[in-house]
Write a structure and sequence with these properties.
It is a single chain. The protein is α+β, with helices and mostly antiparallel strands. It has two domains: about 1-105, Rossmann fold; about 110-290, Tumour Suppressor Smad4. It has eight helices and 15 strands. Helix 1 (about 1-10) packs parallel to helix 5, helix 2 packs parallel to helix 3 (about 45-60) and helix 6 packs across helix 7 (about 155-165). The longest helix is centred in the N-terminal third of the chain and has 13 residues, at about 45-60.
Amino acid sequence: MRAYLEMLKRHLGAFDHSLTTVAGDEARLARAALEAGADTVAAVGGDGTLSQVADQVASWQQRPVRLALLPSGTGNDFGRNLGLSYKSPEDAVRALARGRTRRVDVGRVVTPCAPDGRREQVDALRPRRFLNVVGFGFDIAVIDAAAGARFLKGAVLYRVTALQQLFRYPGIDVTVSSPAHGTRAGQRLILTISNGRYFGGGFPIVPAATVDDGFLHACVIRDAGPLRRAVLFSRTERGRHVGAPEVELLADRRFTVRFPPAASPPRFEIDGDIYAGVGPEVKVELLPGALEVVVP
């Protein structure tokens, strides 16, 4: 953060900034900046931080506001969609100074949800906008396993924990439906609903997707045995899973994901952070062109 502050002073001059102290501060500080009259809100962090801030900016109705991404987290999947890299922080600051922008789509989990562990708090339950992806199934097992890792981070952490879960994860019984594609039901390894191309620290889960194409993209992968899972995982790293018999890509503006009624309320990731619903159904929709972002 200190390096970013120095670069921002060098390229921008005067600006206001705040620092997070506890989880969830991102949304509160972004809201405070909006209420104070900011017309550009810059967020330093990974996909989770950026998503929390974008949720506030995209829902702000009083005046146009731009979002600037200064990546420094472990995933940077949304930034990667825009050509921003955490390896080149000064490029992101230069982009902010130049002020070139692009309108992008935003997704929204319509069904009320809350950060995992807080779903009993009624005031935490609400629809949630997202930048990049909502993921179900294998994705959650990997994030849970990665949370206990001490020595790895970023894309390497995701790959190592994912390889472990290929032999441990039981799969999920899930139904996904959309107006254009009808209903798909069965045992799945993973289901992602993406706004952009990447997830999991650089996996091109939907190689043809862009963040302004007017669609959400579901990747539905049928479950398989451990060795076949390993093959699919290897292919997904390079975007070569498309066309495999277990893989189906669906593009639409709305999706509904349903779990068996007797199952526990679903847990899912929103841009890398775990959320939980209150019932067996999760509805996701697209908000076309809902956010103006600073780009290189």
